[in-house]
Amino acid sequence: MPDKPSSLYNPTQSYNHLITGRHALVTPSAYHPYQLGASLYMPATRQDIWQVIKRDKLPTINSIIICLEDAVSPDDVDVALVRLQELLATWSAHIDSITAPSILTDSAKSARPLVFVRPRNPAMLQQMASYKHIDLIDGFVLPKVDMCSLSNWRMACQNLSTEQLLMPTLETAALFNPYHNQELAIGFKEAFSQPVFALRIGGNDLFAALRLRRPKNSIVYDTPIGSLAYQLLGCFVPHGFYLTAPVFEYLDQPTLMMQELTADVRLGLVGKTVIHPSQIALVQQAYCVPMSTFDEATAILDVEAKAVFKYNNTMLEPATHRAWATEIINRAQVFGTIDDGHSEYSSRR
User: Which residue among 14, 30, 278, 294 is least enclosed by CB atoms within 10 Å?
Assistant: First the structure.
């Protein structure tokens, strides 16, 4: 039996507060990985991607990943590459049309989602580096990166802008080897001229490596991939990397998805892949910061905070809690705050 709709979220809730000047039509200067939020993969063959970038469609999506890998069949790759080039041309022409202040409208200044492209392989990424207007793309998702493929991806990125963001995906059988992962963490710090924005946990490919599929009635952390996720966090986060959460592929179980999202947030994962627009609000609701948590983080970061003090019947110690508090503030700046125990959104910005 499918779960009843969760009482923890309202699918009609407005998230217009997320549509701010944070993401201009041209590339902003700085991001935090929490701005990935709900990331929607879109096959590059789709003809409505420009409408999503302009927010004519899916106006609350945080980020999109234009996919030329698993979401595109081999027979459609050439068409997908042409569509990508057409998208870049349309995007550039639109920016040119709004550069004159006299015709710069509120609509033209509206925010956009972060836009990434996932190439099929390193050779395709090298090809894309020569595309006109490719610098409009915020960055690239690199599939199936491990120590065997890292050098090829490194070569493929050499002609990209050093301001573009990279998101390698951890999704091969090699990731089950902790010694491999320690090498990979060091390799990521040395391989690229571009920032590694986040590492994506590719849940379905990791299940496939074990000849499994995600069970329909369990969150990912109750499976072997959950155990691996803990290992990946312990390996990569101390090296300074952020990780994103694997996709939840069952559209008829919002309550179970919310349970998984609660675990995603608790573990410090900075966003989650979504496969359908109905999942966007769930992700954004889960990442809202409870007001009491926000207040604790603010107290920890107060310049006059004592070395150890009591707050809300909790011991707070800035020396050890500062990193946590900083991430809470970063999360709140993207998703705002929510009253504890209530679903009504209350922005603190």
Answer: 30
